[in-house]
Input
Amino acid sequence: MEIFEAQTAALRYELGDGHTYEFVQATIPCDPAPEIASTASSEASYYSYFDPESPQTFARALDQLDKYLSTEGPFDGAIAFSQGASLIASYLISMERAGRKPFSCTILFSTPPVIDPASVEEHTKHTQLRLADPDTYGCLISTPTVHIWGDKDKQKATAERLSMLCDPAQTNVYVHDGDHEIPSLKSKRHVVETVKVIRRLA
Output
């Protein structure tokens, strides 16, 4: 939570006043992500939302997110990075299939592969979780979305494929020249350009 708050500080500053934010804590202990491993404190605690190899933890994460939004919401939108963005995307797919739209918009940074939430119910010990593939499903998300990723990000292809699961009329994309990261003060120009793209949602 503190890491994501710090990662989005420059972005939130550039967006200006008039917005409030809540930061949702992940619950599964894990090693620090590769992009922060070199500066990570050995005394700090790190968490993920789910284990990609565990359908049970993924299903639990979806359920926890739904309960949090029901209890603490409603919220106008969601901003998420990496695994958090993947979780939000899966949640949107699940909700829109049920005829619900939990957010007015979502802003997703550097999204890794997105799990098809329907595959959780279909999972057995003989199968694996299935990814949401735009070649198979086409458009699954009609909620307005912004997708931001770095040209040097090893996962940029999966972030792009998520954008292909979204309604093109409601989708905005910005590709910066960085890596697996949220644009920060070290790349002020990219922060400004990211905010420009986000404001197109208005």
Residues 55-72 form the longest helix (18 residues). Helices lie at 2-7, 9-15, 55-72, 83-97, 118-122, 134-137, 156-164, 188-199.
